Fold this sequence. Notes:
2 helices
Amino acid sequence: SDINLPRPEIKTEAPKTIDTGRIAARVSAPLISDRDAQPIVRPQQEYPQRMLQDGIEGSCEVRLDVNGQGIPYNIRATCTNSGFVAEAERVVSRYRYQPKIIEGRSVERRNVVQPLKWTLGE
């Protein structure tokens, strides 16, 4: 059995004018939120040869400052074994950071802590 439905009426003509009324818009500079320094380049750390030969694992807490260009300086490592200090300081000196941002400007960030760990293969 056939069902008779009314044919839809479709208008294909676009309106000639569009009434927008009054549109209030406030445009301001884009908001740049504050951000802490974040590492973006982390070179691979090497296992210090003497520590590897002696089968010693270790970790370091590396403290550093990051300048407004994202370059670390004033790097000092405290490690579970002094055999890791030189490598910890060397590798962190090659890190690069997104600098700390305050009110849209890059600024120096002091006392960043970068942990490092050396473990022997499983």
